Amino acid sequence: MSNPFEFFDLAPSLAIDVKLLRSKFLEIQRNSHPDFGDENNNDSELANTFFEVLKSPEKRIQVLLELYANNSLNNNLLPPDFLMDMMELNDVIDESKSGEETAKQQAENQLNGIKSELDNQMSEFIHLWENQKVTVQTMSDWTELTVWYQKMKYWSRLRKNLDGINEI
């Protein structure tokens, strides 16, 4: 994947200025959209794709990890105790589908607790980046962020399962 941060001339970061991103996006569209500029220029299409990536915190983190981390996102780095907890939570979610209201509330509470922990951890990551204590150049170990990302993906799957959303 090309680097969306470079495309918009933005410093790679967990937290970006969305207004600045939008401004750069609109500028590129004014200069390269087929209706207004060079029909052979594909910057407009790239701008659309990269704008969607960078404005989404989860996709932005995925791109950072793909571009700068040494570990693959497909390598499971999740701690065994987390996986066991998620398996148990999945069982509770399955129970809730049989109409067991207490199971559904229990699953909801557990999911909310996990999400809160993940949000707090991300706030700490962002705080470090915003205070320039960490950048892609100074980040020595991407493992913690990779584990956060994998936990978030797992949480998202369980959330969809509880909500009855079937992924393709």
What is the topological layout?
Layout: H1 4-7, H2 18-32, H3 43-55, H4 57-68, H5 80-96, H6 101-130, H7 143-163
Helix pairs in contact: 2-3, 3-4, 4-7, 5-6, 5-7, 6-7
How does this model look, in words?
With 168 residues, the protein is mainly α. The protein folds into two domains: 4-68, Helix Hairpins; 80-163. 67% of the residues lie in helices and 0% in strands. Helix 3 (43-55) crosses helix 4 (57-68), helix 5 (80-96) runs antiparallel to helix 6 (101-130) and helix 6 (101-130) runs antiparallel to helix 7. The radius of gyration is 19 Å and the shape is globular.
Please outline what is shown here.
With 168 residues, the protein is mostly helical. The chain is built from 7 helices and no strands. α4 runs antiparallel to α7 and α5 packs parallel to α7.
Shape, principal axes of CA atoms: globular
Beginning-to-end CA distance, first to last residue: 23 Å
> Helix fraction?
55-70%
What is the β-strand count?
A: 0
- Helix count, per DSSP? 7
What percentage of amino acids are in beta strands? under 5%
C-alpha Rg (nearest Å): 19 Å
Count of all domains: 2
The chain-level structural class is mainly alpha
What is the succession of H and E elements? HHHHHHH
Extract low-pLDDT stretches: none
Please state the oligomeric state of the protein chains shown: single chain
State mean pLDDT (0 to 100 scale). 89
Q: Main β-sheet: number of strands, strand sense, barrel status? A: none
